[in-house]
């Protein structure tokens, strides 16, 4: 259960994508990996590990081998979760007695889960400096807001399929009339600057819920942001646990904005991954031909959680290709390539997991229900790499609080570690070899 405790601490300390990436970077630095900047020249040494961030909300870490950098072994996950973003003109007055915050939804979310629970604010503040500006991460870190339900006496239809309106039903209560003009003051105090020195913000709500272990035998995890910080944390643990490779480049990629389509400069649908791969080969003095060959010899695990069979609604999942919490790593399939797994990539991963006695299961949506997409097929449109989509089974995906299997966390860390240490190589099209 030590892995579970560490995961819950990581999630608690990561209320936004910015904080998640900052915490990942801290662990990478503590392990001896060196921080790089995209705006500076890279000098890379054999046997050394590095990492680089973009927008402070995405990070790619990689280890240069002592031998040939002839391939990449990648684990990809995402740092963001559905939430509410605070608009620039943040305060709303209601009849001279209430002050609300003006928010808009970020990502596809279960609205009802956000009602009647304590919320707070975290994110990034851009502040004036003598030379220009700098970004600071903030977390108000106390019970501050609530989105109150309308009493059932005033909304008799709420239990009969009520449709929430994002503009009228979901504005959080910030305070009474004395809170007017207090929002910017609060943010400035939290950032430790004067109000007039705040130049810009990226601020989000988050539920003030501590993750915990539940179930008759402590078999489940209940926590915010399991999708997808559980996979991001597992990838980090595996990346740090794996010895630096004798050949090939181990890489950890955590992208932002997956929940809104990845189409940003820091998302999986950007050039971030391609740029890093190319710069690695430039910095170690290899040719463009070498870079293309390495990409063709590479493999990615795209890690994002999957839908477990719901105990109240088992009919929502496929009769046979359905998954359960604590039954192992989920390998995800979709005929329309919303997931990238195919027979070749699945066969390789089956062999790897069986050789290491790690349990796994298969997921596909019901044929009449469209599933969500994830990172693998999006990043593959920029860098063509053999890819497999995996995850861990969970309930209530995109709720303010989600449920997953406590045993599965160890399965994922072990599976990813086995992947990083496998020495996988590709032969002709459709061939893989385990070193």
SSE topology sketch:
Blueprint: H1 2-12, H2 17-30, E1 34-36, E2 49-54, E3 58-63, E4 72-78, E5 83-94, E6 98-106, E7 119-128, E8 133-139, E9 173-176, H3 183-191, E10 198-207, E11 212-214, E12 220-223, H4 226-241, E13 249-255, H5 272-283, H6 288-296, E14 299-303, E15 306-307, E16 329-332, H7 343-355, E17 360-363, H8 375-379, E18 386-391, E19 393-395, E20 402-405, H9 406-420, E21 425-426, E22 432-433
Parallel strand pairs: 1-2, 4-13, 4-14, 14-18, 15-19, 16-17
Antiparallel strand pairs: 2-3, 3-13, 5-6, 6-9, 7-8, 7-10, 11-12, 12-20, 16-18, 19-20, 21-22
Helix pairs in contact: 4-9, 5-6
Descriptive report:
With 435 residues, the protein is of the alpha/beta class. It has helices at residues 2-12, 17-30, 183-191, 226-241, 272-283, 288-296, 343-355, 375-379, 406-420; strands at 34-36, 49-54, 58-63, 72-78, 83-94, 98-106, 119-128, 133-139, 173-176, 198-207, 212-214, 220-223, 249-255, 299-303, 306-307, 329-332, 360-363, 386-391, 393-395, 402-405, 425-426, 432-433. Strands 1-2-3-13-4-14-18-16-17 form a 9-stranded mixed beta sheet, with helices on both faces. A 5-stranded mixed beta sheet has the order 11-12-20-19-15. A 3-stranded antiparallel beta sheet has the order 5-6-9, with no helix packed on it. The longest helix has 16 residues, at 226-241. The two termini are 31 Å apart.
């Amino acid at each position: 259960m030590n892995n579970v405790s560490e995961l819950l601490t990581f999630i608690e300390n990561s209320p936004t994508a910015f904080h998640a990436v900052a915490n990942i970077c801290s662990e990478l630095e503590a392990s001896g990996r060196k921080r790089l900047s995209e705006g500076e020249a890279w000098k890379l040494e054999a046997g050394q590990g590095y990492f680089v961030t973009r927008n402070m909300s995405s990070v790619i870490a990689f280890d240069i081998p002592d031998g040939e950098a002839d391939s990449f072994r990648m684990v990809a996950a995402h740092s963001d979760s559905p939430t509410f973003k605070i608009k620039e003109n943040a305060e709303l007055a209601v009849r001279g007695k209430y002050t609300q915050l003006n928010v808009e939804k970020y990502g596809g979310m279960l609205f009802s889960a956000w009602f009647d629970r304590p919320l707070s604010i975290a994110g990034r503040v851009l502040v004036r400096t003598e030379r220009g500006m700098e970004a600071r991460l903030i977390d108000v870190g106390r019970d501050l807001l609530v989105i109150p339900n309308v009493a059932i006496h005033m909304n008799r239809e709420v239990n009969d399929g009520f449709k929430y309106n994002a503009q009228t039903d979901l504005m959080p209560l910030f305070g009474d009339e004395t809170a007017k003009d207090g929002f910017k003051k609060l943010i400035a105090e939290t950032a430790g600057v004067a109000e007039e020195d705040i130049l810009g913000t990226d601020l989000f709500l988050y539920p003030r819920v501590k993750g915990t272990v539940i179930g008759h035998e402590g078999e489940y995890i209940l926590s915010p942001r399991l999708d997808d910080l559980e996979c991001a944390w597992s990838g980090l643990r595996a990346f740090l646990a794996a010895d630096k490779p004798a050949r090939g480049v181990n890489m950890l990629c955590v992208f932002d904005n997956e929940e809104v389509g990845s189409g940003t400069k820091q998302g999986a649908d950007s050039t971030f991954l391609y740029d890093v791969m190319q710069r690695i080969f430039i910095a170690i003095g290899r040719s463009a031909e070498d870079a293309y060959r390495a990409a063709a010899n590479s493999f990615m695990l795209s890690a994002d959680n999957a839908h477990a069979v719901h105990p109240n609604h088992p009919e929502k999942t496929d009769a046979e290709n359905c998954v359960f919490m604590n039954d192992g790593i989920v390998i995800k399939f979709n005929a329309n390539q919303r997931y990238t797994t195919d027979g070749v990539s699945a066969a390789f991963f089956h062999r790897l997991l069986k050789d290491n006695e790690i349990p796994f299961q298969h997921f596909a949506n019901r044929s009449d229900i469209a599933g969500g997409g994830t990172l693998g097929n999006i990043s593959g449109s920029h860098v063509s790499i053999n890819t497999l989509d995996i995850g861990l089974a969970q309930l209530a995906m995109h709720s303010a609080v989600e449920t997953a299997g406590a045993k599965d966390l160890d399965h994922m860390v072990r599976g990813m570690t086995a992947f990083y240490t496998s020495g996988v190589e590709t032969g002709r099209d459709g061939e893989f070899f385990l070193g």
